[in-house]
Amino acid sequence: MKWRRTEITIETQQRLILRKTSSLLARRCEQCAVESTMISPEDAALICGSGTRAIYRWLETETIHFVETSRGTVHICLNSLLQAHNTARVATAADVHGHSTA
Ligand SMILES: [Zn+2]
């Protein structure tokens, strides 16, 4: 089905991006309370196919988990990012469905 194909495409895309990115950091996310992969806002934007502005908006609204290093670098919890991304995608799909001319 179309939906399923979209899922696979996104997964592949994520894997490609994650493989070539150098900013990956495996560490425990305090909010998840489990080991997560921490990535830069730029990589997060790539994975979600959105601009970094959308990522920072999620940071501000605490939709996604993040840690800030002493040097001021932000690392985003991949677990929460994917969850937020999936939720946003479902919301967008529902919205498109409701307004077919959009
Ligand atoms: Zn987390």
Describe the structure.
The chain has about 100 residues and is α+β, with helices and mostly antiparallel strands. The chain has a single domain, classed as Multidrug-efflux Transporter Regulator, Chain: A, Domain 2 (Orthogonal Bundle), CATH 1.10.1660.10. Helices cover about 55% and strands about 20% of the residues. It is built from 4 helices and 4 strands; from the N terminus they run αββααββα. The protein has helices at about 1-20, 40-50, 50-60, 80-100; strands at about 25-30, 35-40, 65-70, 75. A 4-stranded antiparallel sheet has the order 1-2-4-3. β3 and β4 form a beta hairpin. α1 packs antiparallel against α2 (about 40-50) and α2 crosses α3 (about 50-60). The longest helix is centred in the C-terminal third of the chain and has 21 residues, at about 80-100. The mean pLDDT is about 80. The protein binds zinc ion. Zinc ion binds near residues 29, 31, 36, 77 and 79.
What is the averaged pLDDT score?
Answer: 80
Distance between the termini: 22 Å
Strand content: 15-25%
Give the helices and strands as they follow along the chain: HEEHHEEH
Biggest β-sheet description:
4 strands, antiparallel
Small-molecule binders: zinc ion
Helical residues, percent: 55-70%
What is the quaternary state of this protein? single chain
Describe the structure in brief.
Helices cover 56% and strands 18% of the residues.
